[in-house]
Design a protein that fits this description.
Rossmann fold; four-stranded antiparallel sheet; three-stranded parallel sheet; 7 strands; 14% strand
């Protein structure tokens, strides 16, 4: 409602109203080669894709199931987002004329290149299971270069439907998040100012989930950037080198480097592809697959 108060046109889509199947990992992906509507899975995937592409921004609201968002969220990511909406891949596709990830001939969706913003709202019942709730949601926004304006984690709710209306502070904060997202609509990625309550440890994704080893080097689990930790008394500070910030996973350059690495790995293995049929034969013959009675033929 907060976004609407600032004049934004609103549509509400409920995941439970959608039927979106798992990606089948087809050898030749018709989504890439001919477009979303040509996918062999006939469900609501292309409907949701079109809604996201048409939108200038979106707010993703999810409950916490087992430490993180429910599986439907990541089925949607794997089916219609990820490399299918990767802006860096789209830039390379326009340059080469060979389609997304070289799978042409379909041209990249021009709507990928418009500025897009996002916000996250996550609610759960206990702080003890909330640490992994927000960071994975960035896997839904980073490839399409959507700037996350605000993030809200509420962990003092129950699983009882409608319980959120009992927590006035949470409702007010959610309204503010909506207004923050609406105010950022139309802004270019680098011009969007983060409005969350906690600036976070990482200056890019504003999350606190870091990878720490046995040295003073720290890595953001979302952005794949490395910094140096310094401890003075009870105070901890982190220095993030400029060169790391330029190639973080949320940047176009970071996504380009990711794509390059994928292609390099593939090229390194390509001379050995002819070995696959013989080497995989014994695994195909290892037939111990169990299926439900309804799936048996």
């Amino acid at each position: 409602m907060g976004a609407e108060e600032l004049g934004a046109e609103i549509e509400l889509i409920r995941m439970l109203d959608l039927e979106i199947g798992h990606c089948k990992q087809c050898k030749s992906c018709l989504w890439f080669t001919e477009g979303p509507g040509k996918c062999v899975i006939k469900d609501d995937g292309s409907f949701l894709y079109e809604k996201i592409m048409d939108a200038d921004g979106f707010i993703l609201g999810v409950p916490i199931y087992c430490w993180t968002a429910p599986g439907q969220v990541f089925v949607i990511r794997d089916r219609i987002l990820g490399p299918r909406v990767d802006v860096a891949f789209a830039v390379e596709a326009k340059k080469s004329g060979t389609g997304m990830m070289g799978m042409g001939p379909a041209e990249p969706d021009e709507r990928l290149f418009k500025p897009r913003v996002a916000g996250f709202i996550v609610n759960g019942g206990a702080h003890t299971t909330a640490q992994l709730a927000l960071p994975p949601l960035h896997t839904l926004t980073f490839s399409m270069q959507a700037a996350v304006v605000d993030q809200l984690l509420v962990y003092d709710l129950t699983a009882i439907p409608g319980a959120a209306v009992l927590v006035d502070d949470a409702l007010k904060r959610a309204n503010k998040l909506g207004r923050n997202v609406a105010a950022a609509l139309g802004k270019q990625y680098d011009d969007v100012e983060y409005k969350g309550d906690d600036p976070g440890t990482c200056p890019m994704c504003h999350n606190n989930l870091m990878l720490v080893g046995n040295t003073n080097t720290i890595e953001c689990s979302v952005c794949n950037i490395f910094g140096k930790v310094r401890v003075e008394g009870d105070a901890l500070s982190i220095t993030w080198p400029e060169e790391e910030l330029k190639k973080g996973r949320l940047t176009i350059e970071g996504k380009r480097l990711h794509g390059t690495e994928i292609m390099e790995v593939m090229e390194n293995l390509k001379p050995r592809f002819e070995e696959i049929p013989a080497k995989i034969a014994k695994y195909k013959e290892y037939d111990c697959i169990v299926k439900p009675l309804t799936k048996k033929k």
